[in-house]
Amino acid sequence: MTLHPILYKVTERIIARSRASRTAYLARMQAAREQGPARAHLSCSGQAHAYASAGPDQQALAQGGAGNLGIVTAYNDMLSAHSPFEQFPELIRQAVREVGGTAQVAGGVPAMCDGVTQGAPGMELSLFSRDLIAMSAGVALSHDVFDAAVFLGVCDKIVPGLVIAAQSFGHLPAVFLPAGPMTSGLANDEKAKVRQQFAAGEIGREELMAAEMAAYHGPGTCTFYGTANSNQMLMEFMGLHLPGASFVNPGTPLRAALTRAGAQRALAMSALGAEYTPVCRILDERAFVNGIVGLNATGGSTNHLIHLIAMARMGGIILDWLDFSEISEITPLVARVYPNGLADVNHFHAAGGLGYTIATLLDAGLLHPDTETVAGPGLHRYTQEAQLIDGELSWAAGAGHSLNESILRPASKPFQPSGGLKRLAGTLGTAVIKVSAVAPEHHVVEAPVRVFDDQEAVKLAFHNGELTGDVVVVVRFQGPRANGMPELHSLTPILSILQGRGQKVALVTDGRMSGASGKVPAAIHVCPEALEGGPIARLRDGDVLRVDARAGRLDIVSEGVLERAAAVADLSSHAVGIGRELFAVFRKAVSPATAGASVFGDATGASDGD
Q1: Could you tell me which residue ranges the Dihydroxy-acid/6-phosphogluconate dehydratase N-terminal domain spans (predicted)?
Q2: Taking the chain (610 residues) in consecutive chunks of 10 residues, what is each chunk's mean pLDDT?
Q3: What integer pLDDT is reported at residue 610 of this predicted model?
Q4: What is the predicted pLDDT for the residue at 608?
Q5: List of residues 6+ apart from 599 with CB closer than 8 A
Q6: What dotted CATH number matches 421-574?
Q7: Which residues are annotated as a binding site for [4Fe-4S] cluster?
């Protein structure tokens, strides 16, 4: 199938925009490769330190002939998605020994759970944790004794941070090894109903807690399609997982077999062999375009309009929100997974999953088919399903059709013709919106604003009965420089109740909504942010805003707003406590959301181009 002309045009634009920074990045990666296996350059004392605790692998490491695999792990047993990683290092060591290699845990990275910190001060560290994870993984690999790496991570900021680090060490091959989703628990529509009942004061905390525990009940990723599972989708679309690896449940023989195979594959791609495939070759402009297509086709997380930009920039590739918006216009929505539907990721996987999704998009000319991947050249490999037959892992052709068209459809018969991610621009600034789950009658909202400086004030106004009539709820001073750009997901039940009462409702914020944003239109990531004096800081209660997802506009309707002085908020309470004082330098250095809300800035060699 011929590549769609818009996809070709956007890809060529990204290549042209990125030419200088990408060329400089690839030159650095080539220089790193030409230095050869790093262990050979270490002193005997340095090598002895590196191998001292390697046990049965010590001699193989000292002799220097075996490939050495670095394991970077985000294991902790507080995150259900990451608790299975406790068992992975020994499984990986055994697997690489079978092919004559060695493996060492290079280091661990922090991993926080946005589900725990929603609406709490810890959420203000969440976005910054992505760049801290990248730094931590960089420290882990800085010993420079590895020929390849595997990255163990699943959740919201962890995978983007690990990808940034993998790009920094882009001369090394890398395979990402997921843990898989937990088995299905309480149905998603029941969970949402209980949350709304609690927000409305119809039930107590005991009933809410029982429902939440029934939904999140065991090891593995949360089963809704938020940022964590969008991460897993991206790793397949971009070629960093083995095919079919994303949504296999933890603790199963197939999960273990995929982990073993991923470790062995990472070493097979090292410069010591004949299949050298470094990360810098896999993550090119086409791979990122494929990731954007996947995000739109599956109704994925809005957080990736920040993360993908930051991930790409470490490899010298410059993306902007217009790229996402134009790709969204031509990408059909082929999946309905909660909160965009009632199914969870286990149901999606059973219906044909990512293998079928990639196959139907390839057939429609909506993916670059010729990308490099950890499975070998060509994205067609990701249309296959992993199987375990008589204890042997193999791949076979997928079903070739959806097994449940209420969850997954062909590109020729989608749920809607576009992906639902849109860039908004207008007199209030630039923002993004996701409307894949928003009913068409809510795609345009023009209403008076109620202005708040934090989400707790919104909740108080709701409980006091103040949010009546059509309203645009503006929550400002939530940008990366103000307080780390927390998600405002805890507002979802309240806004859904207002909409359910027949009010026209929208959210406008310089913060993030969530990877699980749903049926209420939300113009998020507004730039310039309020702390920078953006127009959002000049709004007052009663001003009229127009949020227009159809035309891609975000406009102030009232006159005289831009002539006002910008409001100033007291953010001192956000500067300390729960570790926030440790991140003051991040708040000062962070780039705007349009540039990935990253603290790395020009260190990547990227610029905004033309």
Answers
A1: 69-379
A2: 95 98 97 77 80 84 84 95 96 96 96 86 93 98 94 96 97 97 82 82 86 83 91 98 97 96 97 94 98 96 95 97 96 93 91 97 98 98 94 92 96 94 96 90 97 95 96 97 91 92 96 78 96 97 97 97 95 93 95 96 51
A3: 37
A4: 47
A5: 128, 131, 585, 586, 589, 590, 591
A6: 3.50.30.80
A7: 155, 222
Q: Give me the residue label for tokens 């008589």.
A: 390
Q: Which residues contact 399 (CB under 8 A, 6 or more apart)?
A: 352, 355, 356, 385
DSSP symbols for 138-172: HHHHTT---SEEEEE--STTHHHHHHHHHHHTTTS
Which residues line the annotated binding site? Answer: 155, 222
Q: Could you tell me the strand order of the sheet in which 102-108 lies?
A: 102-108, 68-73, 148-152, 174-177
Cβ neighbourhood burial of 15 (10 Å; 0-12, 13-18, 19+): middle
* Amino acid 38: pLDDT: 64
Residue whose entry in the numeric block shows the structure tokens 């860039």: 423
Contact 371, 284 (CB under 8 A): yes
Q: What gap in Å lies between CA 410 and CA 406, rounded to an integer?
A: 11
Any idea where the domains of the chain sit in the sequence?
Answer: 5-43+58-183+218-397, 190-214, 421-574
Residues in the chain: 610
Whole-number Å distance between alpha carbons of 453 and 461: 12
Q: Whole-model pTM? A: 0.93
Separation of alpha carbons 233 and 75, rounded Å: 20
Only one residue has tokens 């506009």, namely 553
Distance CA 126, CA 113 (A): 8
